[in-house]
Design a protein that fits this description.
Blueprint: H1 3-31, H2 47-53, H3 64-72, H4 87-110, H5 143-154, E1 160-166, H6 171-183, E2 187-191, H7 199-205, E3 216-220, H8 227-239, H9 248-258, E4 260-266, H10 271-282, E5 287-289, E6 307-309, H11 320-335, E7 364-368, E8 375-381, E9 392-395, E10 406-408, E11 410-417, H12 425-438, E12 443-446, E13 453-457, H13 458-462, H14 467-482, E14 488-494, H15 497-520, E15 528-532, E16 544-546, H16 559-568, E17 576-578, E18 582-584, E19 589-590, H17 591-600, E20 626-631, E21 636-641, H18 654-661, E22 670-673, E23 693-696, H19 698-703, H20 705-715, H21 720-723, H22 733-743
Parallel strand pairs: 1-2, 1-4, 2-3, 4-5, 5-6, 7-10, 8-11, 9-14, 21-23
Antiparallel strand pairs: 7-13, 11-14, 12-13, 15-16, 15-17, 18-19, 20-21, 20-22
Bound molecules: iron/sulfur cluster and zinc ion.
Length: about 750
């Protein structure tokens, strides 16, 4: 351990704790100790403080003992010339720094100084949180966003995050660093500056789209805002890992082993950055600096090196872009996770970080589908000798002669063959087209089947992106992701009107067939359900039982997906569960799922019913799309969507409720579900089904309107949805009961729920 680093970290921590103390006493003097303190849209109070100390800070006064704690962690700056293992002191300084940094941000929130103002700045992509739209940086990440990344984090699509602090050598280098990270689907958190200039300025100047959907989140231009990265890490442990506040050791270990993260320190490292780095090291996150600084070698805290110095100009490479590339490679190597990148032979960058990009009309070269034209995609299986692997054909004209911002019809027809391929997997694979095509930078894909809508940006077209590349993407990705069931892939792009018409009809016949197949696919009709234990990497005791009529609560896996996934990876997280003997078909008890869940939950869940929320409901991890919860007074349930930040009649927002619903615990009356489960005839069918819904987030009513039409037909209750309240009608129980009485909601007449 370097005395130099210890000295500087302790000095930095001492300075910051002093500043936090000053700010806090000033705020208390001005506003009083009872003044409420909170970060927006989180149920975890000040998350790092909660995690490390167990304290639920809600007023300025609550922060006072924390500052005493932070001060007690400050050791004297080492003076002796003797070698001493300063690691303990340095890590203490790191933790003190974290407590002080979060305190400072909390006080700044009270003062209206957070998130940082940045006139004109707008979070890009599909980031759709109104409070982020009015000219400031992001500040802390919402619980909602953390959860919606959950499934990607647990299934490894999003390996983890990189916290970049400071300013890159040049704008060019800044852009290359984030592109390299984006291509590996690594989340990017930005903070800090060097002499007033931040990497956020650099990216902004280069027109890089920052936002949740592009995986680039600007926290703030000072070092202190890097605390939000550790708040995110802490909440990962609390949200998905089932840890509780006040378990710092467990939270550190969780992050060390399960959260892949590292810090890139760009530019000069001052005392405060050393202190913050010491905080990151406690979490097991190594720090890679692009300047000359003393290194810290492994000693058990991080898995690998703690601090790596990689002076940028000394990196052996042809130019700065290559150096940036090598720096990212090194960081990933140091953190030690194998990241699988599929090489996709196209002229634009490729990776999930580009999935959320929006191509606006003005930036568009050409579109297929949408208002004026039609685009469809159709995947079918064929005999092996009828598929020429790797071949892409274009039948009809390209868009070369089309005016700028033109539109044309297009059909993408994919023919696959494989010994393990089944007709049932056709829709599973076809649904991937959306994700695969969206991964290309400058390409936007919306919808599916014959309502697909694809845009190519001018920038992508200028780089040479053409129709053929759709095929190249699909071939590369199907081989990479579904190689276990697909041996050959051939793609034909149709723009010729006659051919297109012919294939569109064929496709529609297939869609119809699949719809009927899905309708026939009931829980009674099969002998096997599937498990999903993917989320056990984060929620160790949670098991999803996925049936034809109840999809996984994340919404990402239905029964067919699980079936295909089992074929792809027979020892993976999706195992067939033989139904076994029927114990109670109404409540949904079968011996198979019960035995499986008992064993896979390590005994935490003894019994599980598949159709009841009141009796042994299925558990949830953290990535549910909606929460269903009993409202006893109303004799019914409410359904709140992850996207809905409003108050609910349960007296809690989604964020707060999520803490009760998740973690693999069984809580009668509360359940996390996938939104399509709402449309299933098996939706809490043991408790009365869909008619029990008394309140539902309006966003669900809107986005699922088409699906609900069919549900209402089935329930023979055409006007029912108007009887269901939402947040625009009421957000408390009294209002709910008044509304229910006014509209004569059926739940009032139904049997008592318990
Ligand atoms: Fe996680 Fe369940 Fe979705 Fe599987 S189905 S990924 S366990 S939420
Ligand atoms: Zn999950």
């Amino acid at each position: 351990m370097s005395k130099y680093i210890a000295t500087r970290a302790i000095r930095g921590a001492t300075g910051l704790v002093g500043e936090a103390e000053r700010m806090l006493s000033q705020a208390i003097a001005d506003k009083g100790p009872e003044t409420p303190v909170q970060f927006p849209n989180t149920a975890y109070y000040l998350p790092t403080i909660l995690g490390l100390t167990g304290r639920e800070v809600s007023t300025l006064g609550d922060l006072v003992p924390l500052m005493e704690r932070a001060r007690s962690l400050l050791h004297p700056v080492p003076a002796s010339q003797l070698w001493k293992p300063y690691l303990g002191e340095t890590l203490d300084a790191g933790v003190g720094t974290l407590l002080a940094a979060e305190t400072i941000e909390a006080v700044r929130f009270v003062n209206g100084e957070q998130p940082e103002r940045w006139p004109g700045f707008e979070m890009g992509g599909g980031t759709d949180y109104p409070h982020l739209k009015d000219g400031h940086l992001n500040g802390p990440i919402d619980d909602i966003q953390l959860r919606s990344w959950g499934i990607q984090l647990v299934d490894g699509r999003m390996p983890g995050f990189a916290a970049i602090v400071g300013c890159a050598k040049s704008n060019e280098v800044a852009v290359e660093l984030v592109r390299q990270l984006q291509q590996r689907n690594i989340l990017i958190f930005l903070s800090g500056n060097v002499n007033g200039r931040s990497i956020i300025h650099q990216l902004q100047e280069e027109g890089v789209e920052m936002g949740y959907d592009t995986y680039i989140v600007p926290f703030g231009t000072d070092t202190i805002s890097a605390i939000y990265a550790l708040g995110f890490a802490t909440r990962s442990a609390l949200t998905f890992g089932g840890m509780k506040g006040g378990m710092p050791r467990e939270i550190f270990l969780y992050n060390k082993f399960r959260v892949f993260a590292f810090v890139l320190a760009l530019g000069e490292v001052d005392d405060l950055k050393y202190a913050a780095a010491a905080g990151a090291i406690s979490y097991g996150f190594p720090v890679i600096a692009d300047t000359v600084i003393p290194e810290i070698r492994p000693s058990g805290v991080t898995q690998y090196e703690h601090v790596i110095s990689m002076p940028f100009d000394e990196i052996q490479a042809e130019n700065d872009l290559e150096r940036a590339k090598k720096m990212v490679q090194k960081a990933i190597e140091v953190r030690g996770v194998k990241i699988r990148v599929t090489e996709v032979p196209i002229p634009v960058p490729y990776g999930s970080a580009f999935e959320g990009e929006v191509v606006r009309k003005n930036d568009m070269r050409v579109e297929f589908g949408g208002k004026h034209t039609r685009a469809f995609e159709y995947l079918y299986m064929a005999d092996s000798d009828q598929v020429e692997d790797g071949k892409v054909s274009i039948v009809g004209p390209t868009f070369a002669d089309l005016p700028e911002q033109g539109a044309m019809d297009m059909g993408i027809v994919i023919k696959v063959a494989g010994r393990k391929m089944q007709t049932d997997f056709e829709p599973v694979l076809e649904r991937q087209v959306h994700y695969f095509i969206n991964g290309a930078s400058g390409i936007q894909h919306i919808g599916q089947r014959d309502i697909a809508w694809i845009r190519i940006s001018k920038a992508a077209a200028d780089r040479g992106f053409n129709l053929e590349h759709f095929g190249k993407i699909l071939i590369a990705r199907f081989h990479a992701d579904f190689g276990a069931i697909v041996d050959k892939v051939e793609v034909t792009i149709y723009t010729d009107p006659d051919k297109l018409k012919f294939w569109l009809e064929k496709a529609r016949t297939a869609y119809d067939f699949r719809n009927r197949r899905l309708a026939d696919l009931t829980d009674e009709a099969v002998t096997e359900f599937y498990s999903c234990t993917l989320c056990q990497s984060f929620a160790p005791n949670h098991v999803c039982v996925v049936t034809p009529q109840r999809l996984g609560l994340c919404g990402a896996y239905n029964w067919l997906d699980c079936k295909a996934s089992f074929q792809i990876n027979p020892t993976g997280p999706n195992q067939p569960i033989n139904k076994g003997t029927t114990i109670d078909p109404v409540k949904g008890y079968w011996s198979g799922p019960i035995e499986f869940t008992r064993q896979a939950s390590h005994g935490f869940v003894q019994d599980v019913s598949l159709y009841s929320i009141m009796e042994n409901p299925m558990t949830a991890c953290g990535c549910f799309e909606c929460i269903v919860m009993l409202i006893p007074e109303a004799n019914g349930v409410m359904v709140v969507s992850r996207e809905d930040p409003s108050m609910t009649p349960a007296g809690m927002t989604f964020s707060t409720l999520a803490g009760m619903a998740g973690g693999g615990l069984q809580t009668p009356g509360v359940m996390g579900v996938g939104k399509y489960y709402l449309t299933s005839p098996k939706f809490i069918s043991a408790d009365g089904g869909f008619k029990r819904v008394v309140w539902m987030s309006s966003i669900l009513k809107q986005t699922m309107a088409d699906e609900f039409v069919q549900v209402l037909e089935r329930e023979e209750a055409p006007g029912f949805l108007d009887q269901v309240a939402d947040e625009t009608i009421c957000t408390d129980v009294d209002g709910l009961l008044t509304h229910m009485t006014e509209v004569g909601h059926p739940a009032l007449e139904m049997d008592p729920m318990f």
